[in-house]
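Quick one: co-fold with flavin-adenine dinucleotide.
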Amino acid sequence: MENGRETHKHAGCGYMSSALATTITSALMSDLSGHVSYNEPMSEHTSLRIGGPAAVFFKPEGLTSLTEFIRRAHRQSVPFLVLGGGSNVLFGDAGFDGVVVSSKGFRNIETQVTDRGLFIRAGAGVTLSRIVLAAQKEAGQGVECLSGIPGTLGGAVFGNAGSFGAEIKDVVAAVTIVSMDGKVKVLKKGDGHIDDGLNFTYRRSCIPEDSVIVSIDLRLPLGDPAAIAARAYECLTKKRQTQPHSFHSAGCVFKNPPNGYAGELIEHAGCKGLVCGGIEVSMVHANFFINRGGGTASDYLSLMDRVKAMVKAKFDVSLAPEIRIIGDMI
Ligand SMILES: Cc1cc2nc3c(=O)[nH]c(=O)nc-3n(C[C@H](O)[C@H](O)[C@H](O)COP(=O)(O)OP(=O)(O)OC[C@H]3O[C@@H](n4cnc5c(N)ncnc54)[C@H](O)[C@@H]3O)c2cc1C
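Sure, here it is.
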């Protein structure tokens, strides 16, 4: 924690100067299959449209390329971090002096209906909306309330995304990760009430921050197709009515405190419409900060601090961030 904010740990050891990053990474990336670009603006990969350049942006083509990259990065102490859809992150204005690894190349999806229900095996880069549609098509029940949440399945599992009382954890059976040493591990949920190495809490999973989720197994009970479709439509409509959608945002800024809603506290503390630079507390939903154009990570963090202080002063509640603050801030 820094200044009460959670910051994302970077895999590898420490930071490098930009020049060092360029020298090491061109050798590091030389014969890995996938897309590689240098000085890639992260504002183009985040829903907030904020974020300076990453020294290297890497979208591995498959597991072999990813595991080889992680092994080399670990050996050479090159920092890296994973990005899915970029819909839950505030990326620093200074970018990231390391490698941003995109999960978007992992987008296979298989479905199978058995007497135990619907089984889905999907790559971490598959969008959550594709999962909701696939489940709907096969009458799988349990993800309809996640309809309308942007981003990838990997990001949803990492942060245990949820909505209207449902969470992705409810349907996750196993998660395959590549750990920092380049080894592939499968974390499985037990069949009973005890989880075998796979635990989730509110907007959190047990997946180590220095691991990369590559694929996820979901198991859903079968239900009535019409009821599933109706519920998904209802949740999507509610979201469209209650969340700002004409401006860029990263979803809810703060987690709900126990027995309350962060949005209500922020609204009743008088923060709706507050502005810092290009960032504003949405008039539609007070727990969404919108980028009105030209907003920076520094504006966003200043607004977070102001809102936090106003809520603390009025209700004596300390809000904790739901968004992930990643990359280099200054
Ligand atoms: C308009 C809007 C509405 C939203 N509504 C909701 C909502 O109702 N409920 C909700 O829970 N969220 C909501 N969100 C937030 C966000 O969409 C979800 O948290 C989503 O699941 C994040 O997925 P992502 O792929 O975009 O993750 P990213 O933003 O790319 O990453 C988020 C974190 O996950 C890590 N991560 C991502 N992929 C991997 C991987 N493969 N392996 C390891 N770590 C990984 C990243 O390092 C980062 O720390 C909303 C966002 C927006 C913009």
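If it helps, Residues 1-15 have pLDDT under 50 and may be disordered.
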